[in-house]
# Entry
Amino acid sequence: MDPVIIVGAGPVGLALALDLARHEVPSIVLDEGPGLCPESPRTTVLRPDTTAQLTRLGYTRAATDGAAWHGWRILRRRQEVLHLDLGATPVLHLPQHRLQRGLRDAAGAEPLVELVPLQRVEELEQDGEGVSVRTRHAEDGRTTWWRGSQLVGCDGARSTIRKLLRIRFPGRAAVDRYAVATLRVDLPFPGEARLHRDPPWRGDREALARPLPDGLWRLDWRLPPGRPAPAAPVDPHATWPGIVTGDTLVARVRATLGGWCGEIPRYDLLAAADHLVQQRLAGRFRAGRCFLAGDAAHLHGALGMQNLDDGLRDAGNLAWKLALVWHGHAGDALLDTYEGERRGAVGARLRAVDQAMPLLRPVKGWEQARRSLLSGSFRKHAPLLTDGTLGAGRFGSPPAYPPPPAAPTGRAGRRTAALSEGLAETTPGVLVPDVPVIAADGAKGPLHDRLGRGFLLVLVAPGAGVWASEHWLGAGLMPRLAETAAALPVPAEVVVAEVYPGATAHTVLLVRPDGHLVGTMQGSRAEELHALADRARGGPAALPTAEHTG
# Structure
C-alpha cells in the first residue's frame, strides 16, 4: 500500500510521521520550507501526557531543552491572588524551535519517514484507491506528483490543504493580542511563572513571565484592542506593525522589570514579536482520504491555552487509526471517529473559553460593575487562568472521548468528546493514569511508555511485583488473557499493574494505542474482550469504499 502523505513539517506533522513509523506505516513529509528550524520567540508549554508522547516518538531531549516551573503565582495590583507549589508535577516550558529540531532529528533517523523540503502543494486529487498531490519545488520550479494512501494537512493556520478541500475555517479573528519578548535576565523568582493583572506600573493591563532554559525568560503583555483584525486566518505570530516597535517595547520591558525587581536589572533583549490569539475551528477534519490536524484544523490560545498540545493529541489520535486501516485491521468507519473525537474535544475547549472570557476580561464602566456583581471577584475566577496556563481543568487536561457505539451506526463522526474534569479513571474514554506496569518479559516502567504500538490489556494484580514474571505468567488469569490477546482482531500486548485507581483485583482494562480507555471487565472473557476491540476499531474490518471520497 502507498505511504501516508503528510503536508507540513512542523511539530504536529513530524510527530504524526514518527507515530505512524511506530506502527510500521511509511510516510512522506512534504515541507514547504528548506528543512531548517530558525530560532524564534515562539515557545510551548507541555503537559505530562504530551511530554511522554514526544519521548516515545524519539524526542528524548524535552527535559533538557525546556525549563521546569515549580511554582505559579497570580497577582493583581500589589496583592497576591493565588500561589501554587507544583511540587512533583512541574510544568515544562521550551522554545518551539528546539522541539521542532528534536523531532526533525528523530524523523531523519527513521527509515519509514521520508522528509522532502522545498515542496509547495498546488493540486490535490483523490479517488477510491488513494490521493495524488502535485508540488512545485520552491527554488527550481520543478513539479512532482506524489501518491499516497491517505493525506494529512498539518500545514498551519493558512493551510493550503484546507483551502484545496474547500473546508471552511470560521471563528473569531482577534480574541486577544500580546506583545512577546525573550530576555536574558535574572528575575527574583527563579523557577516560578508569574501572571500580574493590573500591575502598579503604568501602561500595562497584564504581564506574564515564564522561565526558559539557559537563564532566559519569555515575557508576554496583553495589549488593548487595536485596529480591526483581518477576516482571514493569519499566522498567529506574524508581526503587526505599530504594536511592537523598538521604543514602545523597550519602555514596556523596563517598566515591567523595574516593577518586579525594584530597579531595572541588567538584561539582553534577544527577540520580540506580536502574538494574535484567534479562535477558529474547521468545519470538517476529514474529507474523503484527506484529514486536517494541528493549526490547519483549529486555533486557540486565549487564557494561556496551548494549541500545540491539542495538535499533538490530533496526531496521537489519528496515527493508530490510519495504521489499523493501512494494515487491514479496521475499516473506513474507524477514520470517521477522528473528527468526532478531536473536533469535539477542541470545540468543548472553545465553548469553555467563551463562557469564561466575560468573567476574566470584563468591559469597562457600568457594564464592568454589573458583570462584577454577577461573576464575583477576580480572586474567585483566577483558577481559570491557572487551568489555561498550566494545561489543567477545562482548558488543558486531556479530553474524555465518547465510548464507541455497540454496533457501527454509520454516524461515528458525529459523536462528540467531553471534558475529562472530574471523571473517574475507569470511565471509558479517559486518558489512563501513568501507573507502573510489568510486561511479560519482566520489564518494569510507566504504562505510558508502552503506548503507541498496539492496544494494551492491563490486568490489575496486586502483589505481582513481588514475583519474577516467569512465576505469574503461567498462573491465574494470565494464560487465558495472553491467549485472548493473541486472538484479538487488533495488535495487543498484556501488561500487569499492581494497582489502578478505582479498579479491584482481576480487573482487565483495554487501552487504545493513544492511551484512552476502551472499557473494563472482571476476569478474562474472550467474547467480551473481542467485542470491546471490535467497538474500538469501528466494527469488523471491511474492504475500503469510496463512500467518503471527493
Observations:
- The chain has 14 helices and 26 strands.
- The first strand starts at residue 4 and ends at 7.
- The longest helix spans residues 333-360.
